[in-house]
Structure formats: structure tokens, C-alpha cells
Amino acid sequence: MTDFSMALNEDQQTIRDWLHSFAVNEMRPIAAEWDQREETPWDFIRTAAAAGIYSLDFFANAFADPSGLTLVLACEELAWGDAGLAMNIVGSTLGVAGIMANGTPEQQMEWIPICFGTPDDPKLSAFCVSEPDAGSDVSSLRTRAVYDEANDEWVLNGTKTWITNGGIAAVHVVVASVDPALGGRGQASFVIPEGTPGIRMGQKFLKMGIRASHTAEVVLENCRIPGRFLLGGKDKLDERLARAREGTRTSGQAAMATFEVTRPSVGAQALGIARAAYEYALDYAKERQQFGRPIIENQAIAFKLADMRTQIEASRLLVWHAAWMGAQRMPFSNGEGSMSKLHASETAVKVTEEAIQILGGYGYTRDYPVERWHRDSKIYTIFEGTSEIQRLIIARAISGVKIS
Ligand SMILES: Cc1cc2nc3c(=O)[nH]c(=O)nc-3n(C[C@H](O)[C@H](O)[C@H](O)COP(=O)(O)OP(=O)(O)OC[C@H]3O[C@@H](n4cnc5c(N)ncnc54)[C@H](O)[C@@H]3O)c2cc1C
Question: Are 358 and 277 in contact (CB under 8 A)?
């Protein structure tokens, strides 16, 4: 077990500094443009792939860090650069986490490299859980996967919605119900490679923030895939279903297993946005003169900045601690993963709003980045479990009571 420490080792400092300069040089200058264009920034993805940041190697090393901190450091720096662009780098890790959480070692070896592609031809992956009628309530998925024993194939039907990289990914990891009577315990995850007949992109959504990240529906119509595309394999699924039918405790929902491990890194992205806005507002408050003096000399402004920084530091502690716990395979027995995501996301919304207030009218215009950061921050209280759902998870964990 690695001890928890906030002191970064040399490797971590080097990675942080490297990503920070990438954010300064390759992200900040193009962030406003891609926010306006609201398209997938393939040139940027290629730049990140060529730099070795969008790559299997980079993420494999980050995941392998025994302290758990490299991944959250990376997420913070990239989101500091721009959260929408960053989502093109980190969004694929959700699909990858879905494969890691549910796939056999052979499936991980086969599919994870395909999620990233190569530096010359980078690819994306998507993790498809949410449906029009099943957002927070992931146990009520309607997408069905039916086994065709004669052909050893699965047939999937249903509609997934608000999927990051949906319809443009090389690999879609789809969570579907194999036994609706079992609710969340009757679900399984499947990999569907691009080019498979029966999977297509539906509506592309226009969004408030993280507009450089593609979000769309994924429609499955009699989508036939070989039996081996079921993550974890049929024997393991049959055993799990049998246990669930007997009422024995099982290892839980396929989707939840993925979200558990990714929450601290989602919190870290929110932290990156909050830090960007705080730093900008601090500099601005020292320079902007009103009534013959810098506005920071007013306690009303200085105290805002003090609160912003305090909340950011508190978020980082929660995020790093949860990331460390995750790397030690410690259970989040008090909902620590949820705490980190909840606190960091709500901090990001609040801090970016305060940053607009500190910039006054300028902050409200698109000439300054703080309005974009505020728009970008809001999604972090919604996706990968809303703030209300995080509170539910924490409340259940700390009380042992089935709170609803
Ligand atoms: C930009 C974007 C990207 C996304 N990317 C992905 C992706 O890649 N893959 C994917 O699968 N999904 C993705 N999502 C979907 C996202 O995870 C869902 O939007 C989220 O889980 C909430 O579901 P919902 O929108 O249906 O809200 P609902 O579940 O309908 O919730 C509406 C409101 O009710 C509250 N609520 C619901 N149930 C309870 C309860 N029991 N107690 C208290 N309050 C409750 C919620 O907190 C919320 O405030 C994405 C969404 C967006 C907007």
C-alpha cells in the first residue's frame, strides 16, 4: 500500500508541468473558437495524440501510478486548459473504464488499444448507459440484449442518449438489460466496434457548455454482435444472473462499477475549471481600478477570492484522497468518490459564477473566458451522477439506511 501524501514525486511534477504547458500552448489559444464551432476538434485530438497525451501509454501509466494521483493531476491540468477540449482526451477513458471494470484480461488487451487508435489516426470510445427514460435511475434501462444461442450472437435494440462521442466512436461500450426482471442486476456491458450494422448516431445535441465535446444519441436497431463481444463472457454473466435470481448479493450493476472508479477524475476536471476561473479573477481584481484603487482592496472582493481558494483547496484534498483510495482498491465506504465529485463540481459552478461577478460586465461578455468556464462547469453537477445522486450515495453509505 502507498501512503497518502499531497507531496508530488518528481515524475508527477514533470507530468503536471508538461500538461500545463500543453494546456497553455495548445488549448487556451483555441478554446473559444471550438466553443463557438461546437464540432469535434479532430486537429486538436491529433495534436494531443502526437504529443503522447491522447494515448493508451499515457493513460496506462497514469492508471498504474500506485498513488492514484497522476490521473487526477492530468485531468485538472487539461480542464484548466479547456474542459470542452479536455473531454476529447478524457472522454474516451469512460469507455476504457467500462472495459476495464467488466472485461476479461483478453478483452481488455483486444479492445482498449482500439479505443485510442494510433497517433496518426486517433480514435475515440463511448460509454453508453443513459437513455431518454433512464438517466439517474440506471436500473431501469430499456435497451435489450437478447442472446441468439444458435448463432452465438447478441441482438441489441434501444436508444441511448446524451452519449459523449456517441456515433463517432471506434468502440461503443453499451450497457443493456439481459433480464429486465432483475433490474440493475440483470444488465451487462457489450463492445460494439465501428462499422457494425444496426448501430448509428441519432440526434446530435447543442449544449450550454463543453461544446467542443460531441454529445449525441446512439440508436441500436437489431444490432447483431458476436457472443465474444459481451464483456466478462457468457459463463460469468450466467453465474451472476443465477445468483441474482436466487437473491444472493452480486457484484452490482455494470454501469455503477464504472462510475465508482471514474468519479475522482471527473471531480478533478471540475477542479481544473474552478482553478482557471479563480486565477483569472485574482489577477483581474489586482489590476482593475475603481474608486481610485484596485477592486481587490475591497473586502467584498478579497473575501470572495479567499472563499474561492479555500473551496478549491478543499476539493483537491477530497479528489486526491478519493483517487488514492481508488488506487489502493479501498472501498469508498463513506461515499468518498461521490464526495469528491460533489464538492468539486459544486465548487466549480460557484467559483466560476463568482469570477464573473468579480469581472463585472466584462465577465458577462464572450471577450473574457469566465462566462465560458461557468457554462462548462455546470455539466459537472449533472453527468456521471447528479449532485442529488451523489448525496444519495453518500447518505446511504454513512447511514446504512436505504434513503430514497
Ligand atoms: C453533456 C453530457 C454528456 C453526457 N455523457 C454521457 C455519457 O457519455 N454516457 C452516458 O451514459 N450518459 C451521459 N450523459 C447523461 C448523464 O449521465 C445524465 O444526464 C445524468 O445521469 C442525469 O440523468 P437525467 O438527465 O435523465 O436526469 P434525471 O435522472 O431525470 O434527473 C432530473 C433531476 O431529478 C433529480 N433526481 C432524479 N432522481 C432523484 C432521486 N432519487 N433523488 C433526488 N433527486 C433525484 C436529479 O438529480 C436531477 O436534478 C451525459 C449528459 C450530458 C448532458
Answer: no
Q: Could you tell me if 160 and 131 are in contact, meaning their C-beta atoms sit under 8 angstroms apart?
A: yes
Query: Which run of H or of E encompasses 388?
Result: helix 387-399
* C-alpha of residue 65 to centroid of ligand 1, in Å: 31
> 254-287 vs 370-378: helix axis angle to the nearest 10?
160
Residues 6+ apart with CB under 8 A from 173: 95, 98, 99, 125, 126, 127, 128, 189, 190, 191, 192, 231
Q: pTM to 2 decimals? A: 0.96
To test the pocket of ligand 1, the residue of 265, 386, 388, 391 to mutate (highest count of ligand atoms within 8 Å of its CB) is 386
Residue of minimum CA distance from atom 7 in ligand 1:
163
Q: How many Å lie between the centroid of ligand 1 and the Cα of residue 134?
A: 8
Average pLDDT over residues 123-137: 97
50 grid coordinates: 502526437
For the four alpha carbons of 138, 142, 143 and 146, in that order, the dihedral sign comes to positive
pLDDT of residue 248: 74
Question: Please, which residues have CB within 8 angstroms of residue 326's CB and are 6 or more apart in sequence?
Answer: 68, 261, 264, 332, 337
Mean pLDDT of 392-404: 95
* Residue owning the nearest CA to atom 6 of ligand 1: 163
Other residues' Cβ atoms within 10 Å of the Cβ of residue 404:
5
Residue 262: its pLDDT value, please? 84
For residue 149, indicate whether it is catalytic: no
Report pLDDT digits (tens) over 149-197: 999 999 999 999 999 999 999 999 999 999 999 999 999 999 999 999 9
